[in-house]
Amino acid sequence: MTEGSTIFSQIIDGTTPADIVYDGGDTLFFRDIAPKAPVHIVAITKKAISSLQDMTEEDTVLLGKLMHDITTVADAQGLKEGGYRVITNVGNDAGQEVKHLHFHILGGEPLGPLRCQ
User: What is the distance of C-alpha 103 from the center of its chain?
Assistant: First the structure.
């Protein structure tokens, strides 16, 4: 990877394959390679933003669109009726492994209380 490049930027530019479930133009959704639930989809912006903490005022419209696209994808995956969880990690202490803002959509079974381990 080049400096500043992440696995997500490689998925965006097509140099790393992913199981894409939705392309929203400036957003992208793909199946997690190590799923934690029957449905586990990663939602990203195509614009490189390191984390939620690093978003700017000009990113608010894009992040709003990402949230809307999350509901579209969750509905298409059959999660609307039973519900689903949306998670993002911000920084090392929260477990953020890829320095590109992303959200996890988890569902397809009762998830129970949030467990941090």
Answer: 3
DSSP H helices, 32-83, are 60-76
40 as an active site residue: the answer is no
Could you say which of 40, 68, 100, 102 is catalytic?
Answer: 102
Print pLDDT tens along the chain (117 aa).
444 689 999 999 999 999 999 999 999 999 999 999 999 999 999 999 999 999 999 999 999 999 999 999 999 999 999 999 999 999 898 888 999 999 999 999 999 887 665
Q: Which residues of 16-43 are buried (b: 16+ CB within 10 A; e: fewer)?
A: eebeebbebeebbbbebeeeebebbbbb
Q: Please state, in angstroms and as integers, the Cα–Cα distance from residue 69 to each residue in 5, 23, 74, 79, 109, following that order.
A: 24, 9, 8, 13, 21
| Rounded (10°) CA dihedral 3, 8, 11, 12 | -90
